[in-house]
Structure formats: structure tokens, C-alpha cells
Amino acid sequence: MNLYETLAADIEGQVARGVLLEGDKLPSVRQTSQHRGLSISTVLRAYSLLESKGIIESRPQSGYFVRTRQSSMPRPAPLAASAPLELSSEVDVSRLVLSTLRTIRAHGAVPLGSPYPDPAPFPWPRINQYANAIARRSQHWSVMDDLPPGNPQLMRQIARRHLENGLPVDPSEIIITVGATEAINLCLQAAAKPGDTVAVESPTFYAMLHAIERMGMRALEIPTDPREGISIEALRSILSQQRIAACMVMPNFQNPLGFQMPDARKRELVELLASYDIPAIENDVYHELYYGDSHPTSLKTYDTKGLVLHCSSFSKSLTANYRIGWALPGRYTAQVEKLKFLNTLTTPTLPQMAIADYLQNDGYDRHLRKVRKGYEQRARMMAAAVLRFFPAGTRVSEPQGGYVLWVELPQGVDAMKLYALALERKITIGPGHMFSARGSYTNYIRLNYSYPWSKEIEDALRMLGRLAGQLA
């Protein structure tokens, strides 16, 4: 097929599967052109073909919409639950992380060490209104209502969101989870077994290390460039010498480095792993928090063999209170669905429905634009303050999205000593020790810049710089 015919067939399939319903608006011609890497004329030809087939219609000054037909097919039924299941019978990073999180809560400290974004800009009051309205009209829930894979309404909204961002997704592949943490754990459990070796970025987000530690696996840390991501060259060399069960990465706005892996490198990574038939577990929780003009691609975009297990959530972009995440596990979908059932049975129904209603009816994109703008401004402000107040030789990352800054201190500065001194002054930081299972990054810290700039934050950074100078 020609490019425009391929695009038209893809959109027609989205309509047939219920991702796009009658009356739904399609992404604009310009958006589709950018997300799919097609010319505007190609997109226009595809939309014209769909119009001629009666699948969509154009509305002046409004765009293109799925056509409402007089004798339309009924809406797709909720996805059926799977067949009955049969039950079958070296640095402690997690302890340090738990201690850090407790200090934030117990001491009322300046939360520069928090892994969570400032909740103030999140529209959780509006989501709560939806939840309350749903609770009033639906008083007789059963745990059977949303057995895995999850609530069909939310799954459709997630599929639509991916589609708008340039990644066509079959809703039947989506599995709703209790946040991205559960998604990551389930995907790792499906892709590897105790004793296996799992390749990770270095430094890497500690939730990845937690999952590996909990399942009795071994983490193999791969050098990671602060701009380009995991070293594909180093990974290729290792794969030629030893067996790796899976690779866990954060290609977009990695925590703690903040980079956006270039598209060519994403494609190369997926192709390398596919050549060895190795699954890639993609943590993409910061996908919506980009600073550029368009959404980044994901590893899933380049997956042709179902080997990318994509994990994400709404906790970093919409609300952390409800802890709703999802997985797109590719060829591992049936295994992850079974593990979800065995581990937690279901994800609570009410939060799923409330978020689905918000996504369908409210201004999610408007909310995200405001959040992104604030984060981008604060990233520059915090980086400038660190370079101003900290000792000579300090270096900082250049985040392309997200809300954390990675800071390299002079060699003589011990991040754990700085952590203890800062805590005495009610300031928290994320010591670099948390981001490696080998105890690396002893002179690094991670800082959270999601909170509005204030005198309190500036004073805290000034104090941290003074303390770091004393330790240098």
C-alpha cells in the first residue's frame, strides 16, 4: 500500500476496534504529519480517502471527526476477562530510599529530595468531583467489574492518548495497574526469572533496582550518556559475551539524568535487542512532561516483534493520589495479565472511571502545557542557582523534560555526608548512592525542581552549596 493508504487503514482499524468512536475528533492534519513523519499532502490524501468511504467527515473550522451513521454498528462490548487461571505452585538501595522518603514526611523539610512532583497544579479536585459523581450513581460495584485487563472506558482513553501522540495502540493490549511501579514489576516478572541478569542504565531510577532486587535477579549497569542515553556500543559488546534476560530503560527524561534519547538511538536499541530476542522494559512515566514542541517517540514506536513492554502512569502528569498506571506488554500481554490477577486481582474501579471521565471531558492538554512551562523555567533557575552557590567544579545535567536535576559535586564531596548535614537543617536531597546497586555516584545528588521558586528553596540551595563547600 501507499503511505496514505497505510495511514487510512490504520485509522479505519482504530475506528473498528472502538479506540475512535462516532463523533470523536481526529488529530489535526499538522499533528498527524508531525507524529507519523508524513507530509501534509499524504495525511490529506488519507483523510480524503476515509471521507470518501464514509468513515470520517470534515467540519469547517473544526477539523475531522468520525462520522455518525444512521444505522451504525453497536459499540464494542467491554473486553472479556481471560479464561480461568490456574495457580502454580547487593547494595540495599530500597532501605536508603525508604529512609529518604520518611525524612521528607516526618521533618517537614524542603523537599528537594522528593521523587514526586509538587501536587499543587494537579487537577485532583476536579477528578475527585468525577469520582464522587460516579460513586453516587453506581452504588453496587463488584470486584468482578474490572478484572484484568481493566476498565474498558479508561483503556479506550489511554489508547486514544497514544494515538494522538503518534502511537497506534490496540486497547486489548493495555493492562491497567496500580501505578507504573506495579507495571514495571509485572513486566519484569513476565520477562525474566530469579537469578537472571537484567541490563539497566547507570545511573538508573531506583524503582528499577527495587524490582530486580525483590525478584532475586542481578542488575548489570551499562554506562549511560547524559544526552544520548544507554551506551548501545557497550550493550552490544556485552551481549556478544553473555546472556541478558531483559533490558530496563527510561528513554524519555530519564530519572535522574533527564535526557531524551534521540530517535535514531531508540530505533538502534530496539533493533539490537530484537536481534537477540531480548525484551525491553520501557519506563515512560515522564512522557507527557517534555519541554520541546512535540511528544517524544517511545521504544514502543519502533517495536515490530512485540518485545517492548511499555510502562507508564498518570502519577507524574495528572494525579499521584489515585496511582493508576498501565502496561503495553506486547507478546507478553497474556503473562502480564495473569500476573496482575495473581498479584493484586484488580485495580480499584472508581479511580479508573474518574480519570477516564476527566480525560474525556476536561482540558488535559491545557493542564499539561501549564505544567511543562513551569518545569522548564524552574529547571533553568535551579541549574543557575546550583552553579552559583555550589563549589567550583560542580556540574549539572540539562533536563529535556521531567522535574529532576542531576548534580555532580567535586570529587571530595560525599553525598551521604551532605545528605545528613542537610537533613539537620530540614533540607532533603537524593544522594547518588540510590541510583546504583554498586554504591556508585558517591559525589552526586538529585534535586527536585517541580515546586514553585521561593525564598525558601533559594535559601536551601545556598545552604547546600555552603555545606558542599565545607566537605570539598
TrEMBL record:
GO terms for molecular function: DNA binding; DNA-binding transcription factor activity; pyridoxal phosphate binding; transaminase activity. InterPro entries: Aminotransferase_I/II_large, HTH_trans_reg/aminotransferase, PyrdxlP-dep_Trfase, PyrdxlP-dep_Trfase_major, PyrdxlP-dep_Trfase_small, Tscrpt_reg_HTH_GntR, WH-like_DNA-bd_sf, WH_DNA-bd_sf. It comes from the Bacteria. SMART domains: HTH_GNTR (SM00345). Residues 1-69 form the HTH gntR-type domain. Pfam families: Aminotran_1_2 (PF00155), GntR (PF00392). Keywords: Aminotransferase, DNA-binding, Pyridoxal phosphate, Transcription, Transcription regulation, Transferase. In the C-terminal section; belongs to the class-I pyridoxal-phosphate-dependent aminotransferase family. This is Aminotransferase class I/II-fold pyridoxal phosphate-dependent enzyme.
